[in-house]
Design brief:
The chain has about 300 residues and is an alpha/beta fold. The chain has eleven helices and eleven strands. Helix 6 (about 135-140) crosses helix 7.
Length: about 300
């Protein structure tokens, strides 16, 4: 036990529960992550065009999701895979943010992108492949924008918390951790969802933690059971991929829920949350969203 405490104090003292005390609540444009209410964040793996994103945004809010996720810049294993729409995708997210009244979380991949992405997004996501990109961590840490820090696919919990420490050490305390599965010998799923990490983190850190069952499983029929299990063991929220037509999605269609499945998941999450003494977070008022700096977009564009 003394060895664990010593490492916390020396390696991630700002992140540690020993030093930080009570569990933190991250406020992202009115959505409070880490409190009594469990959050549901939903949206496509990647922004493919304005029409599909508008349909997804409307359905996500109707289903009870409180934030919209979507990739504009996509780190892909193959250089020949679709890499996202870039700044045009960001502009689409900002448009749908205003229409649906959902704060946006999207990935930033490099330090030089931080200023651009901040113009459009309420929360900056640092993906699994960038968890130990220390230049990016420092740059995002200098902002005061909420951050979603995904666990690296081969990272230990200590390494993950040390990455979060880079953000807090720069002054950004608005950090949410995201367990998205780790690489193991098992091949039945895309990754292995480490559900035990949730109660471990609740003991070791004051930061909120949510779970991504989409990337962990890689299969849509497993997303629901894993999401419910995550809520049962104490996750502060779930982030899932959803698409109007998953079979035609340009990225990760096999793990994306359709819009009806999203509504069913939210209902099931509410039942599990109630069983463990929690509630579900309701969408915030659209009028309460702060203004963003992103410019207006043309009606054209989209995925070519």
């Amino acid at each position: 036990m003394s060895g664990i405490v010593a490492r916390q104090v020396s390696s991630y003292r700002l992140t540690s529960r020993e030093v930080g005390g009570a569990r933190s609540i991250v406020d992202c444009a009115g959505v409070r992550i880490g409190g009594q209410a469990v959050v549901l964040i939903a949206g496509p793996c990647t922004v493919e065009g304005l029409a599909m994103l508008e349909e997804t945004g409307r359905a996500a809010r109707a289903a009870g999701a409180v934030m919209l996720r979507g990739g504009a810049f996509k780190p892909r294993s193959s250089p020949y895979s679709f890499q996202g729409l870039g700044s045009q995708g960001l502009a689409y997210l900002a448009r749908v943010r205003a229409q649906a009244g959902l704060p946006v979380v999207t990935e930033v991949m490099a330090p030089e992108q931080v200023e651009l992405v901040m113009r459009y997004a309420d929360m900056l996501q640092i993906g699994a492949r960038n968890m130990q990109n220390y230049s990016l961590l420092r740059e995002v840490g200098r902002t005061r924008r909420p951050v979603l820090l995904k666990r690296g696919m081969s990272a230990s919990i200590d390494e993950w918390l040390e990455a979060a420490e880079y953000l807090l050490a720069q002054g950004n305390t608005q950090v949410v951790l995201c367990e998205r599965g780790i690489r193991t010998f098992e091949t039945a799923t895309r990754f292995t969802l480490d559900l035990s990490a949730i109660p471990v983190l609740r003991q070791r850190t004051h930061l909120p933690v949510i779970v991504d069952p989409s990337h962990a499983s890689g299969q849509r029929h497993l997303v629901g059971p894993l999401a419910l299990a995550a809520v049962a063991v104490g996750a502060d929220g779930i982030i899932v991929e959803t698409h109007p037509q998953p079979t035609s999605a340009l990225c990760d269609g096999a793990q994306s829920l359709d819009l009806d499945q999203l509504a069913g998941l939210r209902d099931a999450m509410a039942r599990v949350a109630g069983a463990v003494g929690r509630t579900m977070h309701d969408p915030v008022s659209a009028e309460s969203l702060p203004a963003l700096l992103g410019p207006q977009i043309s009606e054209g564009g989209g995925c070519q």
